[in-house]
Amino acid sequence: MIFISLFKFRKKMTKADVEHSARVYKAAEKQGVKTLGAWWTFGRYDGVRIFQAKNEKQALKMLLQIEAAGSETLVAIPREEAIKLV
What we know:
This protein has one domain: Alpha-Beta Plaits, CATH 3.30.70. Helix content is about 40%, strand content about 30%. The protein has helices spanning about 15-30, 55-65, 80-85; strands at about 1-5, 35-40, 45-50, 70-75. Strands 2-3-1-4 form a four-stranded antiparallel sheet, with helices on one face. A hairpin with a 6-residue loop joins strand 2 and strand 3. The model has no long low-confidence stretch (mean pLDDT about 90).
């Protein structure tokens, strides 16, 4: 499954925060969560991470460790698969 996570920073980011996130993502990767892309953004959200996990539980386990306030995570369905449903 593909997930798109939109997040806001709860406070000004520090190097320690960045290192904590890197450790969480690295540990999640060992459990099968694969990051497809990550960006810091301007606008309503401070960042976007697109990742792949086998199910919602696996995705949630990782997201709870990040503790991003104001985050929103979406499940993405490839366009080609969605068209088959029409």
